[in-house]
């Protein structure tokens, strides 16, 4: 094992080298681990004292074993890492949205005057070309026939 210094920023876990004098080289990270589609495993028996691992769903053999200096430090890291992914926060949003919908009878993401579902509804419409969300805030409405007249060169993304 090599000693590294870690910094968690959103769903990115940066790690930095520590030099011979024990100083952290913060000029540039030595690497980054993207925290999506992963799980945190606590297994001190196989990993060692105050150790935990990060395993990825598609690549279970690609595990990162990390350890802390104390049990409380490991608990803090594990809690922070479990809450780091987009997936976690998306799930939390859905749960809160359902709770608010049950209490108020309305979907909180569709409440007036903020957006009335315009943005969200358009995002899920089947479309063959890239469209900007900026159009949703204008008062004019572009029909699907007008969108079809866009030349082939203007289509940025084809599905």
Automatic annotation (TrEMBL):
PROSITE patterns: PH_DOMAIN. GO terms for biological process: endosome organization; receptor recycling; retrograde transport, endosome to Golgi. It holds the Pfam family PH. It comes from the Eukaryota. GO terms for cellular component: cytosol; early endosome; recycling endosome; trans-Golgi network. Residues 1-86 form the PH domain. Keywords: Phosphoprotein. InterPro entries: Boi1/Boi2-like, PH-like_dom_sf, PH_domain. The keyword DNA damage does not apply. Coiled coil: none annotated. This is PH domain-containing protein. It comes from Heterotrigona itama.
